[in-house]
Amino acid sequence: MNHLQAAPIRREPLLTSAVIRVTFLNFLFFSAYLLFFPTLPFFIEGLGGAKSEIGLLIGISSLASLLVRPFVGYAVDTVGRRPVMLAGLGLFVLNALLYNLVQSVAMILPLRLLTGASMAIFVTAASATIADVAAPSRRGEVMSYYGLANSLAFAVGPALGGFIIHAGWLERFDDALTSRLTWLSGAETPDLHFTSLFLFAAAVGVLGVFIAAAGTETRPADGGPARSLSFSHLFSRAGVFPACINFATSFVFASMVTFTPLFARDNGLQNAGALFIVYAAMVIVMRLSLGRFMDRYPRAWFIVPGIAALALSMVTMATAHNVPQMFVGAGLYGVGAGTFQPAMMAHLVDHTEPSERGRALSTFTLGNDLGLSVGALMLGVLVDQAGYRPAFVVAAAIAASGAVLFFISTQRAHSWRTAEAAVRP
Questions:
Q1: How high is the pLDDT of residue 413?
Q2: Which domains does the chain have, with CATH numbers?
Q3: How far apart are CA 66 and CA 88, in angstroms?
Q4: Burial (CB count within 10 angstroms: exposed 0-12, middle 13-18, buried 19+), residue 233
Q5: CA torsion 298→301→302→306, rounded to 10°?
Q6: Which is more confident, 304 or 356?
Q7: pLDDT tens-digit map of 26-43
Q8: Does 358 score more than 70 pLDDT?
Q9: Which DSSP state fits 272?
Q10: CB of 97 closer than 8 Å to CB of 196
Q11: What integer is the mean pLDDT of 59-82?
Q12: How far apart are the first and last CA of the chain?
């Protein structure tokens, strides 16, 4: 009898205090950020904005993200994760308060740019932080659970935003403020309670500031030599291809957050926040069920089907003629997002050095910024000219092209590695 037994393999910890802190912080930020998604189209419409203007103003925030994110990535790798994160949260609080000054559609433009900048600053710093504190052997699982914060935020933020602006009991509170301070935005939208919405968003942002301030810096001490602020040091080559895939899928996101609330209202669903609850529920199901497998199987097994589900969600929306069909479309969107996003992010981190994570994640999310900005603007023009359904079909086609591009690229990379191995002595 063999009394010698192999020592048990000890797995690295999954949910450390640092992981929990930044994940909860991510939830808070996105809950506040997403308060605006199903509500701002009505705010703009109430101020006299056209459909194309709604698309422009929703998408313009991503243009601001696109412009500042390279510099944010550089700052995250040189200054540190924590101070950059605090800056993003502070800017968001200021931005939410300034929305109360809006009296016309034109005044929304600079604030949407500020919204995009705050989002880019926070997300880049938080993404680098979670990559720092995640155990390498459980990175895919951590990224999946980290993404649950976004999913829960999608369930809470849009639904809560819709509830706040329609809550009759807030009418007295809004009236008390706007009657004394006539420059508040509530004076322009008397039937919807946007003053309460903007103040609530700012309060959540302040809570996030305190939580982030209580954390510690996670930037690796051996980050390498300091880099000068040059064009080559603002971007990461490793993040370019993933950014292209992100760009294609972001057309679906642009369609969902910009025009689905208005489409849902016109087809019998007054509060589109319910669609985001269905979406978030499916994301949670996918990430809880698939998270444990993302480190055991190739990332492509999750990325390609995930993008396919995103495209199918838009086809479903384009053919929806009742509320249940819209819920199916939202559910498919959740399946796709819950599968694609954590796998793609883990794929990028797998191929990036720790000292370059800030710039790599910044470059990666540039694709999302550009896709949301271009998508919202292009689809807004299409909605004005042809209606919602053709716009949804276009979004589906562009997302599907991303799946094809990723599949072809991975197949070529596999063939190249196989051929290289065959010629080795």
A1: 52
A2: 17-218+231-423 (1.20.1250.20)
A3: 15
A4: middle
A5: 150
A6: 304
A7: 999 999 998 887 788 888
A8: no
A9: T
A10: no
A11: 79
A12: 43
The residue assigned the tokens 């949910």 is 15
DSSP string, 56-121: HHHHHHHHHHHHHHHHHHHHHHHT-HHHHHHHHHHHHHHHHHHGGG--SGGGHHHHHHHHHHHHHH
DSSP string, 368-416: HHHHHHHHHHHHHHHHHHH-HHHHHHHHHHHHHHHHHHHHHHHHHHHHH
Report how far residue 302's alpha carbon sits from residue 51's, in angstroms, rounded to the nearest whole number: 35
Copy the structure tokens of residue 106.
Answer: 């034109």
- Within 8 A by CB and 6+ apart from 324, the residues are none
CA distances from 404 to 36, 127, 302, 312, 355 (A): 33, 27, 14, 14, 31
Residues 6+ apart with CB under 8 A from 397: 311
Handedness of CA 329, 335, 338, 340 (dihedral sign): negative
- Across the range 280-295, mean pLDDT stands at 77
* Residues in the chain, overall count: 425
DSSP for 334-371 reads HHHHHHHHHHHHHHHHHTS-GGGHHHHHHHHHHHHHHH
The residues, ordered by sequence, that sit 6+ positions from 292 with a Cβ below 8 Å of its Cβ are: 141
Question: For residues 284 and 230, is the Cβ–Cβ distance under 8 A?
Answer: no
Q: Which residue has the tokens 């950020």?
A: 33
**Amino acid letter, residue 99:** Y
pTM for this prediction: 0.68
- Asked if 205 and 96 count as a contact pair (C-beta separation under 8 A), the reply is yes
Helix and strand counts by DSSP (H, E) for the chain: 15, 0
Contact 321/328 with Cβ under 8 angstroms?
Answer: no
Q: Are 218 and 133 in contact (CB under 8 A)?
A: yes
CA pair distance 74, 231, nearest whole angstrom: 10
The contacts found for 169-172 with CB under 8 angstroms, 24 or more apart, are 170/196
Q: What is the pLDDT of residues 168-189, one digit of tens each?
A: 777 777 777 766 666 666 545 6
Q: Report the pLDDT value the prediction gives residue 261, as an integer from 0 to 100.
A: 79
Residue 13 has pLDDT above 80, yes or no: no
